[in-house]
Design a protein that fits this description.
The protein has seven helices and seven strands; from the N terminus they run βαβαβαβαβαβααβ. It has 242 residues and is an alpha/beta fold. It has one domain: Rossmann fold (3-Layer(aba) Sandwich). α4 links the parallel β4 and β5. α3 runs parallel beside α4 and α4 runs parallel beside α5. It is globular and about 45 Å long. The structure holds NADP nicotinamide-adenine-dinucleotide phosphate. NADP nicotinamide-adenine-dinucleotide phosphate binds next to α1.
């Protein structure tokens, strides 16, 4: 599927998986509105995409812990377009350490705020633009840590809390927005191999049954879900861990 008619918003696209999605979707023809916590990081990725010959890409600053910053991001995007077709809630701070006492209070607040509150407020801010689309989709990068009973990650408890909040939010939202035609698609990956899409490793990282999940395969999950006809509402992707 080509994405030429798709206008896509991606949070935290200054590096890693958000950047990967921005590059891959732009390569497929999408108009990309990408944000990063720092404008310089967003502009770097915008310029990388422009250097690949795609001019329909826009860079914004968005700190997911700051409601005003999220509103400004949505306002900025609305100055370019009256609709968006896909919102990718990618951003969420990771916090390591399986010991509750190992993190500062500030780390806990930041982790839960960026992942949980940030996802709710970003979706709220962009919903009016999504509702102007004939094919609106909200894609959220949750995590296996958002699955009830999951315990195999070394992530901090606050990260589990943030991901569980994202899971609860997208669960109810998928039911409540379905009558308005919005599909809410959530991915629950375990730790995955995050190769740079512009590196050789992107193509050469093994993707066999005994291998860890790759960003390459995750991108293909997103492409697949969005490409389905509207009656096919893939609500969640869960992955068996190796
Ligand atoms: N990588 C994995 O194995 C894995 C597994 C399961 C789920 N996930 C989820 O998939 C998504 C992408 O993963 P990833 O590996 O690319 O994540 P990552 O490498 O941990 O990067 C986190 C991203 O979130 C951004 N971020 C953190 N706090 C922010 C804030 N307050 N405002 C705006 N942006 C903020 C970071 O921006 P800065 O550059 O400014 O720090 C960075 O772009 C995340 O939601 C993650 O939880 C990842």
């Amino acid at each position: 599927m080509r994405w030429d008619n798709h206008r896509v918003v991606i949070t935290a696209a200054g590096r890693d998986f958000g950047r990967t999605l921005a590059i891959r979707l732009a390569d497929l023809g999408a108009e990309v509105f990408l944000s990063a916590r720092h404008l310089a990081a967003a502009r770097r990725v915008r310029d990388e995409i422009r250097d690949r010959g795609h001019q329909r890409v826009h860079a914004f600053a968005c700190d997911l812990t700051d409601p005003a910053s999220i509103r400004d991001f949505a306002t900025g995007v609305a100055e370019h377009t009256d609709r968006i077709d896909v919102l990718v809630n990618n951003g969420s701070r990771y916090l390591d350490g399986p010991d509750l006492l190992s993190a500062t209070d500030a780390d806990v607040v930041d982790t839960i705020s960026s992942g949980a509150t940030g996802t709710v407020l970003t979706t709220k801010s962009f919903l009016p633009l999504l509702l102007n689309s004939e094919t609106p989709d909200v894609v959220t990068m949750v995590s296996a840590c958002g699955t009830p009973g999951h315990h195999r990650s070394d992530a901090h408890d606050a990260f589990y809390a943030a991901k569980s909040a994202q899971a609860g939010f997208t669960e109810i939202l998928s039911k409540r927005l379905r009558p308005q035609g919005v599909r809410v698609i959530s991915l629950y990956p375990p730790d995955f191999d995050n190769a740079d899409p512009l590196s050789e490793e992107w193509e050469t990282t093994p993707r066999e049954a005994e291998d860890a999940l790759t960003a390459h395969s995750l991108v293909e999950c997103v492409l697949f879900a969005v490409a389905q006809p509207r009656d096919c509402f893939i609500k969640a992707f869960h992955f068996e861990q190796v």
